[in-house]
């Protein structure tokens, strides 16, 4: 009892006497890192059952160490409440946080091995560096910080106005960490997935299993009445990419369709281009157009029955037949079309001067399966069936800088391979229909209790619903299922504590910087 | 907004930087000669100050014009913040020069602002970027502006600490007296005050960000790399303040710590794309 009283007096009364047995106040970092090492081993002991013996051994060591700590309690308290220790601890925390950014968090071992190698991955696992912020040792550092803050506050004469800034700031920091710990331990986060008209009275927690179970039952029911997504308008544009062997890598220039109706210089190139003809997607029925792309050349339009040269080669081809919906007729043993609707467009071409079994060598180009069925020696062509009623298309003219006449032409359809043309300098000019990004998504929900609607609300990003101790946030939606809404559900009993702590820290900082210098010190 | 606007802005900042530098060189020459008259370097310094004011006003116009063009606050992309940051640097510097006659700050502020505009000129946005739902919040402007005001304060602290260190290598009693007559507030103390201001704004910015994250995503802290580095920056300056206020660190070692802490600001602002990530989904804190 006397020992406890003397310890309490050490905490509450600033020490002015010399410590009975000096505890080295230098080498603060090694001592903090020693605590970190202890906690890493402790976590291994807890996680790996066969290391229970290690935990038992550490408990014995900790007990033995506790005796030494008790004897040096005065000096330890002075150290823990010193500004030097504060700086050492803050620096260690900063370093630990930085580690958590250089090592991808929650990364799989496969990812880590691929990027860091086997040896580094081993040590990342041993030191819990891929889960820094959930590790014992990081939590231990935060716990030590709270302890130091509370001890420092307890040793200050809080009745003096000049100390209020210190108390607010340091107290606020302790309150934030305590609030976060409360939320982490007693709070829950998860998801609720709903389709329009569906009701849910449970959420699926992020960390399922254990005492939280696979589902968490709610005391009320949530019904999704309506879900709508508002998007920014689609935009047709030209995008110039720096490519690598024809594959676009980096966006270099963006030109709007309207701007491209005048001659526009292309960056990193001596070419200019302009839109010669533009056919918007109309939805009305119009004849399809056949676009052929050869390696290293601009796409060009072809007609059935005509013969064309393959750019860059001495070969040529004749367009024999167009099959809007390609099928293989087994009975007649030939290609045919199932209908006039271009569901699976294919172009039959033949190469004059070549024969297969006595007949001109034929080749089938599939719009939806480029390269399908191609054999060695076949013409290196890709086919696009342009259905003008469904996509926009443009015909471009190009010219070199300094020239007045157009020297090249290309037909592009919005999106996909047929929307791109390769230019000298490994550049790719693409005609794109940039799909509008989501502007907002909103779930209209009703809360039901006892079968009765007690509340209706619109849940949107930055506008959550708060009910029954839970908050519901608009978190997800599906492009291919616009009746689906994903709501994030959160219950955080520590939130108010965290907010209070943040307010205290802010007030404390302002007080220390701007009020305290103006407060007259007694005497 | 066209490149010509940027070029004009860079031009005015460059003039302010040159005039400021000329003013300081003339002041140093007068100092070493023991010349008590202030007519020439005083006039050049005032001209530099007015040029900085003009550059600040033009910067404000650029931001206003971009705001009108985009139909939203222009603070989302790196390019847009590279117009906001020089605005904030100029604002904080103008106030400090006015209050404490910190004339050597003018060329530094103008140079810092110029570097930002040069970056923006070299890497402009290729197209107008729309705002995703999470950024459509009343917190957007206060959070971003508070942060950039804090970054400006910390930059000014960095600049003044650099100057203080520079002068410390040539310091004699006569120089110290002459500097004290020129600037009532010693450079080291001015650097500290700037850091205090920047840190206070950083604290408020962090708190706002947490509140906004809670409203948007349901979590006030997600250990996102940008949040982590904002926290590291806060811890770094907190350590500096502990060393100076409670640890009584003064002089060169405190100034070196001040300089080192600014590296955290730069990394937090510009370094996020350098960090590896296991998940390919984009973060709202990473400039795309």
Give an account of the 3D structure.
In chain A, a hairpin with a 5-residue loop joins β8 (289-294) and β9 (300-302). Chain A has 3 domains: 2-155, no CATH class; 188-231 and 438-491, no CATH class; 235-434, no CATH class. Chain A has helices spanning 2-12, 28-47, 52-71, 73-80, 83-102, 109-116, 118-126, 136-154, 164-186, 495-515, and strands spanning 188-195, 199-205, 216-231, 235-244, 247-256, 264-265, 271-279, 289-294, 300-302, 307-309, 316-323, 326-329, 334-337, 346-356, 359-366, 381-386, 393-400, 408-413, 420-423, 427-434, 438-449, 452-460, 465-467, 470-478, 481-491. Chain A has an 8-stranded antiparallel sheet with strand order 22-21-3-2-1-25-24-23. Chain A has a 4-stranded antiparallel sheet with strand order 5-4-20-19, with no helix packed on it. The model of chain A is unreliable at 1-25 (pLDDT under 50). Chain A is elongated, with a radius of gyration of 36 Å. With 523 residues, chain A is of the alpha+beta class. Chain B has 2 domains: 1-125; 142-274. Chain B is globular. Chain B has 288 residues and is mostly helical. Chain B starts with a helix and ends in an 18-residue tail after the last helix. At the A-B interface, α5, β5, β21, β24 and β25 of A face α7 and α8 of B.
User: In what range is the share of β-strand residues of chain A?
Assistant: 35-45%
The ordered H/E elements of chain B are: HHHHHHHHH
Shape of chain B: globular
Round the mean pLDDT of chain A to the nearest integer and report it: 84
Determine the N-to-C terminus distance of chain A. 38 Å
Number of domains of chain B: 2
Q: Helix count of chain A?
A: 10
Low-confidence region ranges of chain B: 278-282
Which residues of chain A sit in consecutive blocks of at least 5 with pLDDT less than 50? 1-25
């Amino acid at each position: 009892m006397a020992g406890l009283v003397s310890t309490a007096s050490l905490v509450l009364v600033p020490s002015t006497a010399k410590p009975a047995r000096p505890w080295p106040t230098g080498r603060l970092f090694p001592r903090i890192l020693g605590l970190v090492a202890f906690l890493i081993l402790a976590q291994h002991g807890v996680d790996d059952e066969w290391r229970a013996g290690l935990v038992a051994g550490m408990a014995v060591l900790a007990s033995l160490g506790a005796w030494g700590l008790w004897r040096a309690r005065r000096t330890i308290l002075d150290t823990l409440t010193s500004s030097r220790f504060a700086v050492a601890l803050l620096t260690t925390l900063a370093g630990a946080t930085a580690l958590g950014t250089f090592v991808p968090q929650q990364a799989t071992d496969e990812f880590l091995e691929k990027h860091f190698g086997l040896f580094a991955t081993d040590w990342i696992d041993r030191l819990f560096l891929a889960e820094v912020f959930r590790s014992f040792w990081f939590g231990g550092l935060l716990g030590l910080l709270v302890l130091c803050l509370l001890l420092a506050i307890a040793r200050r004469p809080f009745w003096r106005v000049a100390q209020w800034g210190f108390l607010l700031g340091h107290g606020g920091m302790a309150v934030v960490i305590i609030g976060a710990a409360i939320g982490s331990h007693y709070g829950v986060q998860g998801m609720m997935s709903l389709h329009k008209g569906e009701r849910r009275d449970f959420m699926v927690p992020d960390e399922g299993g254990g005492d939280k179970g696979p589902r968490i039952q709610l005391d009320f029911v949530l019904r999704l009445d309506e879900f709508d997504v508002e998007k920014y308008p689609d935009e047709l544009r030209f995008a110039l990419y720096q490519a690598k062997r024809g594959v676009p890598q980096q966006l270099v220039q963006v030109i709007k369709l309207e701007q491209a109706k005048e001659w526009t210089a292309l960056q990193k190139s001596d070419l200019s281009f302009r839109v010669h003809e533009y056919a918007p997607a109309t939805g009305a029925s119009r004849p399809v157009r056949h676009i052929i792309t050869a390696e290293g050349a601009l796409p060009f339009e072809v007609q059935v029955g005509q013969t064309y040269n393959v750019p860059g080669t001495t070969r040529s081809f004749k367009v024999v037949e167009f099959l809007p919906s390609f099928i293989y007729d087994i009975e007649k043993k030939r290609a045919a079309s199932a209908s006039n609707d271009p569901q699976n467009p294919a172009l039959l071409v033949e190469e004059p001067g070549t024969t297969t079994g006595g007949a001109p060598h034929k080749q089938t180009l599939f719009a939806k399966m480029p390269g399908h069925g191609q054999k060695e020696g076949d013409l290196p062509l890709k086919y696009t069936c342009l259905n003008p009623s469904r996509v926009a298309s443009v015909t471009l003219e190009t010219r070199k800088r300094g020239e007045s006449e157009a020297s090249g032409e290309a037909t592009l359809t919005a999106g996909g391979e047929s929307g791109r043309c390769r230019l000298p300098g490994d550049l790719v000019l693409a005609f794109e229909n940039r799909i509008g990004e989501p502007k907002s998504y909103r779930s209209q929900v009703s809360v039901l209790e006892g079968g009765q609607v007690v509340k209706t609300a619109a849940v949107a990003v930055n506008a959550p619903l708060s009910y029954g101790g839970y908050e519901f946030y608009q978190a997800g939606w599906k492009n291919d299922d616009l009746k689906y809404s994903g709501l994030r559900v959160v219950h955080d009993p520590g939130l108010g504590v965290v907010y209070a702590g943040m307010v205290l820290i802010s007030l404390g900082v302002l007080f220390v910087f701007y009020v305290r210098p103006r407060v007259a010190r007694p005497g | 907004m066209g490149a010509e606007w940027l070029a004009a802005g860079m031009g005015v900042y460059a003039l302010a930087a040159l005039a400021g530098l000329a003013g300081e060189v003339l002041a140093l020459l007068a100092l070493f000669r023991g010349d008590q008259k202030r007519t020439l370097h005083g006039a050049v310094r005032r001209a530099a100050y007015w040029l900085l004011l003009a550059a600040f006003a033009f910067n404000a116009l650029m931001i206003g014009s971009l705001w009108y063009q985009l139909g939203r606050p222009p603070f989302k992309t790196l390019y847009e913040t590279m117009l906001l940051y020089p605005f904030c640097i100029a604002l904080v510097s103008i106030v400090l020069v006015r209050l404490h006659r910190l004339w050597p700050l003018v060329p530094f502020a103008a140079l810092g602002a110029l570097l930002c505009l040069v970056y923006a000129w070299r890497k402009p946005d290729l197209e107008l970027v729309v705002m995703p739902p999470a950024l459509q919040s009343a917190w957007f402007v206060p959070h971003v502006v508070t942060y950039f005001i804090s970054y400006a304060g910390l930059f000014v602290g960095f600049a003044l600490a650099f100057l203080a260190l520079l002068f410390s290598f040539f310091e004699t009693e006569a120089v110290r007296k002459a500097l004290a007559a020129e600037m009532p507030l010693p450079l080291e103390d001015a650097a500290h005050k700037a850091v205090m201001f920047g840190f206070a704004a950083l604290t408020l910015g962090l708190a706002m960000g947490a509140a906004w994250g809670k409203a948007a995503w349901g979590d006030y802290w997600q250990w996102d790399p940008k949040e982590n580095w904002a926290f590291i920056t806060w811890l770094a300056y907190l350590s500096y303040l502990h060393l100076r206020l409670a640890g009584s660190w003064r002089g060169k070692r405190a100034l070196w710590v001040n300089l080192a802490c600014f590296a955290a600001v730069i990394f937090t602002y510009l370094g996020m794309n350098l960090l590896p990530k296991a998940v390919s989904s984009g973060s709202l804190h990473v400039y795309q």
